[in-house]
Structure formats: structure tokens, C-alpha cells
Design brief:
Blueprint lengths: L1 H25 L18 E2 L5 E6 L12 E10 L4 E4 H4 L3 E4 L5 H7 L7 E6 L16 E10 L2
Antiparallel strand pairs: 1-2, 2-6, 3-4, 3-5, 3-7, 6-7
Length: 151
């Protein structure tokens, strides 16, 4: 009987936590792993390279950066099991970087964006860190907000 009580308590706890996690995502908690972190949804845009993306917030800009543009952006990155591995949002400081000095998935993906846009990217390993030691492996998921095309 003790096991049944523990199982019931565990189920109740899980039921209580699930709405909290869903609420955090709905409220836009930028650090919470998105529900679709494991794989891109059917309505995600896909490029020939294997990059998938979905617009989360429309931008206000009209121009797209080029592969050599320097941009200022906020981002959060997760592995497909939901582990956050990096976030400019958490640090409270957007990143300014030239697009030709980041992973290939970022170079390709951010060129699809306009200023003010927020997009989720599913970046295959061959467009990410390619198995480099110390870097997250496998497909990576990034939420990126393009704040400004600097140059």
C-alpha cells in the first residue's frame, strides 16, 4: 500500500509541475526548454542544408543581414534533451558578432531574419559544432532574437 501512495503522490506532483512548465513557456520564459526541443514541428521551414526554423515573433525590420554582417542578438541554446547550454538572456547581455565567425547554422539562419524578429532554429550537428571536444553534440535548438544589424 505504501508504494501506491508514493506513486499517487508522484503523479500528483507531476500533474502540478506540468501546468507550471506550460505556463512558463506561455509566459515566454526564455530559459525554459521549449516543448518542441526534441525535433522541429511539421510546420517548421526547412532549408536544403537541413536547418529548420520557425518564426516566434515577427520583426519590424525590412533588411536581412548578409553572411558577413555583424549583428547584435539575444539567444538561448538547448540540446534536444532540453538541457540549456548557453544563453545571452541569462547573462543579461546580448551578443554582438560577425555572422562569418559563428557556427554555420547561425550564419545561414540569421540571414533569414529581419531586425526585431525572434526565431527558433533546429541546427543539425554538421551545421553546429561537428562533434568538437567540449562542445554540445547532436542537433541543437536555439531561440534567437535579432536586435540589430550593426554593419
Amino acid at each position: 500500500m505504501g508504494e501506491a501512495v508514493e506513486e499517487e503522490a508522484s503523479e500528483e506532483q507531476a500533474a502540478e509541475e506540468a501546468p507550471e512548465q506550460a505556463a512558463a513557456e506561455e509566459e515566454g520564459d526564455p530559459l525554459a526548454a521549449p516543448a518542441d526541443v526534441a525535433a522541429p514541428p511539421a510546420d517548421a521551414e526547412k532549408t536544403e542544408s537541413g536547418l529548420a526554423s520557425k518564426v516566434l515573433k515577427e520583426g519590424t525590420g525590412t533588411e536581412h543581414p548578409t553572411a558577413t554582417s555583424t549583428v547584435r542578438a539575444h539567444y538561448t541554446g538547448w540540446t534536444t534533451d532540453g538541457e540549456m547550454f548557453d544563453s545571452s538572456v541569462k547573462r543579461g547581455q546580448p551578443l554582438t558578432m560577425p555572422l562569418n565567425r559563428v557556427i554555420a547554422g547561425w550564419t545561414e539562419g540569421v540571414q533569414l531574419m529581419v531586425e526585431g524578429e525572434k526565431r527558433r532554429f533546429w541546427i543539425p550537428q554538421d551545421l553546429a559544432y561537428k562533434g568538437a571536444p567540449g562542445a554540445p553534440a547532436g542537433m541543437l535548438v536555439f531561440d534567437v532574437e535579432l536586435i540589430e544589424i550593426v554593419e
